[in-house]
C-alpha cells in the first residue's frame, strides 16, 4: 500500500474526541513525551509537508494551537480535537473553532479539520476556503 493510501485509510478511520479540556491536556502531554516521534504537521489549504517537524517545532505548535483553541473556542468543553488513539496516537485532527460546520455526528460532507498531526506523511486534501487569518497564523508559526 502506498503512503497516500495509508494516510487516507488512517484519516477516514475511527477517532475519539478530547471532549473536555483536561482530555486535551492529557493528549498534549502524550505528544510532548513523543516529540521526537516523526510527527508531520499539516495545515489544510497549505502544501502537505514532505518531512516531519523537529521536536522544537512540534512543541511550539502544541503551545500555539492550544492557546488558539482556548481563546477562540469559547466553550467549557473542548470536543474539537480528535485522535485515532488518545493514549498512543498516530493521527490527530484539529478543527478550527471558527469553521466547525458539523465536525461530529453524521454529514454527507463533513468539514475538513483545520490541522492534522500525523505519523504518516499527509497527502493533499481538498481544502475549502481557508480564511486569510488562519493562513497568516500558520505562516507566522513557520516563518514563511
Shape: globular
Q: Percentage of helical residues?
A: 25-40%
Give the overall average pLDDT: 85
How many individual β-strands? Answer: 5
- Poorly predicted regions are 102-106
SSE-based structural type: alpha+beta
Largest sheet: 5 strands, antiparallel
Overall description:
The chain has 144 residues and is an alpha+beta fold. It has one domain. Helix content is 35%, strand content 12%. It is built from four helices and five strands. The chain has helices at 3-11, 21-33, 55-72, 132-141; strands at 16-17, 40-43, 81-83, 91-94, 115-118. A five-stranded antiparallel β-sheet has the order 1-3-4-5-2, covered by helices on one side. It starts with a helix and ends with a helix. Mean pLDDT is 85; it is low at 102-106.
Question: Which secondary structure elements does this structure contain, and how are they paired or packed?
Answer:
Elements: H1 3-11, E1 16-17, H2 21-33, E2 40-43, H3 55-72, E3 81-83, E4 91-94, E5 115-118, H4 132-141
Antiparallel strand pairs: 1-3, 2-5, 3-4, 4-5
Quick recap:
The protein is an alpha+beta fold and 144 residues long. It is 35% helix and 12% strand.
Which characteristics define this entry?
12% strand; 4 helices; alpha+beta; 144 residues
